[in-house]
Structure formats: C-alpha cells, structure tokens
Amino acid sequence: MSPPSPARRGELLGIAAEVFAEQGYNATTVREIADAAGMLAGSLYYHFDSKESMLDEILAGFLDELWAGYDGVLAAGLGPRETIEALVTASFREIDRHRSAVAIYQREARNLAVQPRFGYLAESQRQFERAWLGTLERGLAGGSFRADLDVRLTYRFIRDTVWVAASWYRPDGQHSPEVIARQYLSMVLDGITPRPS
Amino acid sequence: MSPPSPARRGELLGIAAEVFAEQGYNATTVREIADAAGMLAGSLYYHFDSKESMLDEILAGFLDELWAGYDGVLAAGLGPRETIEALVTASFREIDRHRSAVAIYQREARNLAVQPRFGYLAESQRQFERAWLGTLERGLAGGSFRADLDVRLTYRFIRDTVWVAASWYRPDGQHSPEVIARQYLSMVLDGITPRPS
Amino acid sequence: MSPPSPARRGELLGIAAEVFAEQGYNATTVREIADAAGMLAGSLYYHFDSKESMLDEILAGFLDELWAGYDGVLAAGLGPRETIEALVTASFREIDRHRSAVAIYQREARNLAVQPRFGYLAESQRQFERAWLGTLERGLAGGSFRADLDVRLTYRFIRDTVWVAASWYRPDGQHSPEVIARQYLSMVLDGITPRPS
Amino acid sequence: MSPPSPARRGELLGIAAEVFAEQGYNATTVREIADAAGMLAGSLYYHFDSKESMLDEILAGFLDELWAGYDGVLAAGLGPRETIEALVTASFREIDRHRSAVAIYQREARNLAVQPRFGYLAESQRQFERAWLGTLERGLAGGSFRADLDVRLTYRFIRDTVWVAASWYRPDGQHSPEVIARQYLSMVLDGITPRPS
DNA sequence: CATGAATGAGTATTCATTCAT
DNA sequence: AATGAATGAATACTCATTCAT
C-alpha cells in the first residue's frame, strides 16, 4: 500500500546496474540481481514493474546527468578546441560516476534504440552527433583542426575512443577522470608521434 | 548440385555470425539463425553440436586468421612505427573480412573468456597485449613515439580505437579497409590538430 | 525396389536386441543401433518400418521360440514335478539363446502389453500363467508339492526367479543352461537348508 | 495452511517415484510428474534442480533406509540362517514402505551405476554382495546350508527372488510384508517339495 | 516489505522419421 | 542399399512475472 521508498529504489538500481554491466542485460537474471541485493527475486517487483523498467531507469538517469553536463559545455560559448576538450572531460567524469550505466549503454543501446520505449536513446544519439559534428565543422572552418579530416570518421573516432574506456576504466586514487581525459586529449589532439619542436 | 558438407557448414556459420553480431549472442535464438538459413531450428543440429559450438567456431576461425596476419607483421622486423601501422592495417583488413566475428568478439569476449572452453580468448588477449605493448615500448625507447606517453593507456587507446570501428564499419566501394586504416593512423599518429609545418 | 534381404534383417535385429538389452529400449537411439551396425540412422529404415517394429520382431521371435519349447513340454504328458523341471530347463535354454530378447522382455513387457500392437505379450502372459498354475495345482493335489503352498505366490516365485537370471546370465564354457537349470531346480525344489537324511 | 518446504518436497518425491516406477524413468516426462502433482512442469524446478536430481533423492533415500535396517541385522550377531531370515524380512519391509523406489532401483540401477553421480549405487551393490555372500559362506561352513550350494548362484537366487517381488507386491490387509517374507523364506529354505518327516 | 510458491511462455536440444540422390 | 540432409514433434529446463500471506 505504502509507496516504495525512493532511497531503497536507488540502492537497488545501483546493484542492478553493476550486475547488468558485468554480465550483460540479457544474461542477467532477476534472481541474480535479487541475490546481490540480499532478497528474493519476487521481492524486486514491489519496487519495480519489470526487469526492463530497471534498465530503463538506469539508462534514463545516466543520460539525464550526461546531458546536464554537455548542455553546460555547449552553452558556454567556447572555441571548438576548448569545446572538444570540455566534452571529453565531461564524458570521462560521467564514466567515473556512472561506470556501470555507461558500460550498459555501450553494449545495449544499439539494440534497444529501436524499441518505442527506448526511443529516447535514439534521440540522444542524434543530439550527440549534432553537437560533436557541429563543433568539429566549426573547428575545421576556423583552422583549429587539420584541414584534411573526414569529419564523420573523426566524430566516430573520438566518440568510440572515449566511451569504450568505460569497459576497462576503474576508478582508483591515481587516475582521476580529469587525468585520464587530459591524457586521452593529448593523444587525440596531437597524436602519439613526437612533434618537431 | 548441393555443396559438400564443409561448404554448408561455412555458409551456416556465416549466417549465424551475422545474426549474433546483429542481436548479440544471448539474445539470438537458434530459431532465428535457422530462419535466416531457411531451415528449421532442429536441422542446425545436424551440422553443429550446439549454439555455443557455432559461436566457438566463429571466434576461433576469426582469431586464427587474425593471428596469421599479425604473425606475418611481427616477423617482418619492421620498426616500431611501421609495425603499428602494419598491425592497424591488418586489423582493418580483418574487420573487413570478418566484420560480424569482430563485432561478436567485441561484445562477448570478456564474459566468455572465463569459461574453460573459451580459454583461448584469454590467451589471445595476452598475446595481443604483449605484441602491442612491446612495440610501443620499443618505439618509446627509440624515440618513435612521444616520451610522455602512458604505455598501457596508449595501448588501450589504439586497441579500442581500431576494434570498435567494427561496430559501424560497412564495406563499400569508397572506403576500403586500407583507406580507413590510413585515415585512422593519421589521427592516431599525428592527432587532429594541425601540425606547425 | 528389391526387398531387403532377410539375412541382413536378422543380423540387424540381433544388433538392435543387444543394444536394447544393454541400455533399455527408450534410452536407445536409432543412431546407436546404426552405429553398432556400421551404417547411418536413416539407412535402417530401408530394412524396418520403425524402431518399434524392430522391438516387435525381436519380442515376437523370442516368444515364438519359447512357446515352441513350452508346447513340446506341456504336450509330453509328464508328471507335475517333471513338467516344472522341463519348463525351467526350457526357460534357461531360451535365456541362453536369446539373452538380449529375454532381458528386453523383462524390462519392457509390462508397459508394452497395454498397447494394441503388443497385445500378444499380454496373451502370452496369460497362457504362461495358465500353464504354470495348472501344473502347480496338479502337483499340489497329487502330493508332489508341499500342501501348505500358496499357489499364486509360488508361481510368481518361480517365474521371477528363473527369468530374472537373464539379467546376469552370461554364457561361458562352465555354466551351460542345463547346469544352471539343475542348480536352480535343486534350490527351488529342495531349498537351501540341508535335508535330514 | 500450506505445509513447509521439506514436506512438500517429500510429497512431490513420492509422486515422482510412483510415476517413475509405473512408466520407467526415461519414459516419464517431467510434465507427467507435474500433472500427477497438480502443477505445471516448470513449477517442479522450484523444488528440484532436475529430473535426475529427483531420481537421485528417491534412490538415495531408499538406500539410506535400507541400510539402516540391514546394519541393524548385521550388527545383531545372529547365526547365518537367522541372519538370512532377518535380511529377507527387512527387505520385504522395505519393499512395503518404498515400493516405487525399489521398483525404480530394480529397473534403472544397472545403467545408472556407471555415472559418477550415482556411484553410490555401485558402492551399495558391493556392500550388499559382501553382506549376503559372507552370511552364506558362514552358513555353509557351519552346516546351516547344504554343502553342495554354489554360493554366488545362491546369492543371486535369493537377491533376485526377494527384490523382484517389488514389481508385483501391493500391500493389502491380508499380506503384510512379514507374512510374505515368511512364505518366501519357507520356499527358499525348504523348497517346494514335501520334506520326508 | 519481503517470502514462498507457482505460472506460462519461451529456448536449446533430441530424435525418430523421411526422402532425393 | 546406403547416404546426407532435413523435418517436426517432443522434452527438459529457464526465467520474468504474479500473488496470497
């Protein structure tokens, strides 16, 4: 009768996200989530409608936070290079805070996006692409980036390069998301061969 | 008229690989593979022991070919930069020829590698890492690469950069694997910002 | 077009009987029979209509031979004790010659007998019971057997005692069916405790 | 109202045992067990891991009880003849209480015993043989049994004689297991022909 | 809130059987 | 006579979900 406590829901979502990230959504049984939460499978249904709704909440929550960060960057009116740097940094910060959600997103988004319920994934991808492509084109026109770049290829290159890091990134004391972001950026922007001084 | 058994197996494996790549291994039902092959689910078992053995053959076949290419490169005695270039090019060529297998590998390898049957995946990963890390360290020592690189991070950067491309790369007339490889390499080696000439 | 050779059929039936006896009818696959015969599963269907028809032929053939022996004994006009001895001996002879068929019969007859196709099994059981019960009652009336015997119980006792031997009897040089029969008979007739001389 | 879990398991095992005994383990489908229990096939898996584990529990439970009885007899220090009598009586008592388990054991033990999971069946058979053979040999040496007995044959004779009764024995008011045991014993010990007084 | 027990739709797999060659 | 390939029905088992307590 009384509505489920939001705090408990949050805990449970965190647990579910970890298991989904570890094993994949399809390979994860509701029972495994319940085990990890110290309850029985059926009990999860007091808090959530379905396994799919857990996934939904995890992904939607992640995208909400991500776009909060991105929108701030895009609204700041930075130059193309600085925008790229800020977006990449924001992305690594998001990986740091929602690692499991990012990993789930990486693995499942493509197949989920075709379902009506997960239409917002496709929408987010479009916005994402628009933001990055726009910035790259602006930089190309202004000479911030090499003139011979294939913009779409470069977009994919940066996008994949950044997000795939979620599959191995584990937060520890040494590598803060900002440090990782700076190292990635130095490779993406300047490459791995030495520049002639 | 009807092709001999090994040819049929090959056909079926190709079909299965495409469906696995499209939907994920777990989310793919044997019935879907059979549908795609124009036969009934049970009929697949005349050719294969199990769904898992199909996956096994797909991945093992891919890794065999991949290592044939890599071993050739590594035995050629090239310099570090040329080795990286050749490895990346070999990888894109492999993506071109075994796109679905690469996509499956990307998505499933981590979870499969812990199973005894798929132990060769873990072994291949170790060899893979050794080859790349060794080359990078050699280049670092010899000045082919920037002295401030974090070798492990760079390894992951290049590795992911290349393989993730399998998730969107579709061969067409314009972008041969060699062309894609060259464009990627120019970004990885020299970055996306213009070099002061 | 040309009818299958009866000789080959006989061979195949013998092989099938052995596998059925070893593993049970249900647990035996047509493929296992074919393997044992050095052919492919489908090829058996040139010789037989179905797996069930193999079972049918095996059991019918065995019962035919068995009754040939029994009828001879029953028609001979022996006394009750001699009849029992002759029936037991005939049974052991049949076990010796059709061990697998007897083993199959023991294991499957009860469940098969309810099917119309195998109605002859039930019929045979009834005849069997009539022959044994009649002999025992004749012996009881004539004083050949102990007066305090429960005839039905004794019938089951002897029947089970004899036929179950098929589950372990293996023909070898030392124990001919006649020898085994004589030893059994001495136990059944005189018991295992010493008779006061 | 609803009985606690172990009781329900016991109920279900009893039902499964009856169906296995009636139709044979292989010929019994999980659905048939579920039907007999008034539930759906899948629901059985809430209580048991597999069809095989039901069989396992049934057989192990039966053997545990059987050996409880046998060990009591063997430890009592009776003479050979009294030991045989007590073992036979214990066996019929067990047939009375676990009729289906005994019938399953009779039909399936030979083929199951080779599987690692059912290794305890083979072990039990060895112990069983040791107990009976030892008793028979003791009796032979001490003159309780006829000097001309073939001990192994006699062992099989008695063993089969007793256990095969499970296939037809149905408890009713008139024939308690003790009564049946006494009648069997009188035949086994003294035979069916009259003794010269 | 949580449990225990069940449902029912699905899923991989098996296997007797068929049939063109 | 035998093969290779397929069919189709059945079967054990899984799992998300429901619900009375």
Automatic annotation (TrEMBL), chains A, B, C, D:
| InterPro entries named in the record | Homeodomain-like_sf, HTH-type_TetR-like_transc_reg, HTH_TetR, KstR2_TetR_C, Tet_transcr_reg_TetR-rel_C_sf
Q: Name one Pfam family in it.
A: TetR_N
Residue ranges of the HTH tetR-type domain? 6-66
In terms of superkingdom, the source organism counts as: Bacteria
rRNA-binding recorded as keyword = no
Q: Which residues bind DNA?
A: 29-48
- What GO molecular functions are on record for this protein? DNA-binding transcription factor activity; transcription cis-regulatory region binding
Keywords of the record: DNA-binding, Repressor, Transcription, Transcription regulation
Residue ranges spanning the membrane: these are: none
Protein name as catalogued? TetR family transcriptional regulator
